[in-house]
Design a protein that fits this description.
By secondary structure, the chain is an alpha/beta fold. Helix content is 38%, strand content 19%. It has an eight-stranded parallel β-sheet with strand order 7-6-5-4-3-2-1-8. The longest helix has 16 residues. It starts with 5 loop residues before the first strand and ends with a helix.
Amino acid sequence: MVVPDICACITSAADAEAAHAVRALVALYEVRIDLIGPEWPCVAAALTRPWIACNRTRTEGGASEQPEKERLEVLKHAARLGAAIVDVELSAAAAAEFVADMKRRVRMLVSHHDFRRTAAEADLAAIVNAERRIGADICKVVTTAERTADNLVVLRLLKTFPGQPLVAFAMGPLGTTSRVLAPLTGAAFTYASLASGHESAPGQLTVTELHAIYEMLEERTCA
């Protein structure tokens, strides 16, 4: 079994050292511009893996209070500074225009987050299709697990779009299983925190915890 790709979430300028320490365990980083603050360009410049630029709105679990035009301009600046992927929310008013403009220079991840529940699989599939219609290179659908069965809902979603790079999992303590299994069932990658207490969303494992799980699974596969 090949160890799945892990995306380490950087949420503070103080995380730079920790990000460097796990560089051999991760495929890419998510630079949470909205959480890091003005020092984010320095943090991004020090990275030795590809990185996702994310400037998340409060309505989707972030901290950005910038006017929308200014918020998106920051993402454009991140692309100029070398971001491999730019994350924009499907709910953004100018999402379609922004994706069309940015696709000429960077891969676009279009995201959706539901912090209340996990909708029916058909409804989640409709969200993925909406992301695809506006030109997403990578689609992302994240829900909140209210019950253990919600893990199966998001994992089945991954099987619905076999040719589409897709990230899907459920947040919260009941959704941790989906975070672990998602890249084993078709997700492009999964997210992890750099350390306990530095989570960018509920239910994240740390990079070292997640990597240890995958190593144990690999040992079992090879046995």
